[in-house]
Structure formats: structure tokens, C-alpha cells
Amino acid sequence: MMLRPTLAIEYAAEIWGGADWKQAEQVQNKVGKTLLGLSNSTAGEVARGELGWLSLKARRELKQLIYWGKVLKMDDSRLVKRVYLQCKKITDSMRDSFCGSVKRTLGKLKLDHLWSSEAIGELKDWISFISSVIRRKDTELWMQAVQMKPKLRLYRYLKTDLGREDYITWQIPTSHRTLYARLRSGTHQLRLETGRWVNEPEEERLCKVCITGKVESEEHFLLDCYVYSKIREGMYRKIFDQTGFNLLLLKDDKKWLLDVLMGHGLKDKEAREKVGKAVSTFLAVAMKIRSQNLSQSAEV
Q1: What's the CA gap between 188 and 168, in Å, rounded?
Q2: Which of 110, 112, 221, 266 is the most exposed place for a label (fewest CB within 10 A)?
Q3: For 256-275, b where at least 16 C-beta lie within 10 A, e where not — what string?
Q4: What is the pTM (predicted TM-score) of this model?
Q5: In the chain, what are the domain boundaries?
Q6: In DSSP terms, which residues pair with 215 in a beta bridge?
Q7: Left, alpha or beta for 210 (phi > 0: left; psi -120 to 50: alpha)?
Q8: Which of 49, 1, 10 is nearest to 29 (CA)?
Q9: pLDDT tens, position by position, 234-263
């Protein structure tokens, strides 16, 4: 199972964690890419999206606001509470202070009124509420970033929420999981991606495995390229045998089919896993065939 690593760089973030820290975000993204077997050129949003990780900034803000809630619930005689009450009067406008950070974060979340009223209710309710608010805000920012990157056009169709993907925990070979993640994220060896590296016009990034003159996109590779027809038929047959779903009945609806094969087109988690495992096996075999064909072509 892939779990989010405990980062020493978050130590005591309740006190200091309100500022931006891009280098820390880069560390988390690199860890995520490594866990998934993704290349360094993969968008950081993909690693976070697949693993369901909040940004480190959001995590620090959450830790800080939870701690603020705990301070509010302390008895006024406690030293920490007395220091807070004094600091609130004189440091809430200081950007780098604890009070200034809490006030600024509440404002960003449109909860300005709570800074004055401190009416947060019971602590457990506050923790649940603020966790939900921060996750929702971080998800919005994550989705905006995904939408801005043309390379992620398939990914943003397959992925609509900042939550950990089921395939992370499937019992499949690591190499299969990596291929699955790479195809979803657009960071693969297909011509649609490799042509981008050399600024080749998209319409010229043709499949060199078949002779149809089609762009070698994820859709072409997974659904159309005739070179992989036999193993593709085997994939559909396996899916039908294990789930009872005859996906070929709607094979002309390419977007729907892509969502079923690699996204959340199926609501049943067990069926989605069976389909995903069949797809990951197809990817492994098809990529091997592709590599062999391209090697033979290069020798001619």
C-alpha cells in the first residue's frame, strides 16, 4: 500500500506554517511521482491527484487552524492561552506571526467573522468542519491547475476529484501500475507525447506501428490501433467473463469507453478493479509489442 510519507519539514507547522513554500511542494510532488513510477516531466497535479494528497500548504493551514481551535478551548489561566490573548491584540496584522497567519487564512476561506467571534463550537465539530473547508478549497485550486495544462486533457476527463485512486492498492505488478498511471497522465512513450518534446505539430505525431495515418494518442493506442486487435479482443472477453459487461456494444462512444476502462465510468468498485486489471495487462503486452515493432522497423 502506498501511504503519504511523514515529512519532517512539517514539524511544528501549527506555529509557522502559513507562508508559501514552493520547494516543499516540489519535494512532495517528487515523492509522489517516484511512488507511481512517473517521469520527472509529469505534472505535479497528477501525482497529488492519483494519491489524493493535499498540498503541503493546505496541510499546514489545516494543522494551524486546528491548533488555533485547541487554544481557544483552553482555560484562560493556561500560559499558552494567556500568550495568545496578548498576541492577538498586537500581532494579528503581522504577516509572519501566528495570529496574523490564522487571521489571513480564515479570510481566504471566507471565515473572517470567526477571527473576531471565535465561535467555533465544539472542538471535534471544528476539526471536522475546517478539514472539509480546506480540502474543498485545495481541490478547487488543484482542479484549476489541471484545467490549465493542455497535456492533461485526458487526465482531467478521467479524474474529477482530489482523492486516491483505487488502482494504487490493486494486487498487480508494479510495472503494470506504472503503465496505467502513465497512460492516464499523458506521460508515456506514445507519439502524442514524444512529439511534444520536439515541438512537432500534433497532427504529425502519427502512429509508426500501424499504417492508418492516425495520431498515436492514448485513445488510438488503447481502442483503435489494429496491431493490438488480438490482445484487445482478449481484454474485452476477459472483462465480459468477469463482469458480464459487453463493452463492445458501445465501442463507438470513445469518451465513455475510455472512462470505463481507465476512469470512473463504472460505479461498482469491484467491477472497476476487474476492468482495470484487464486494462493494465493489455497495456503491458501492447507496449511490449509496440517496442518490438519499432525496433524491427529501425533495423530495416
Answers
A1: 18
A2: 110
A3: ebbbbbbbebbeeeebbbbb
A4: 0.88
A5: 8-158, 166-299
A6: 206
A7: beta
A8: 49
A9: 999 999 999 999 999 988 999 999 999 999
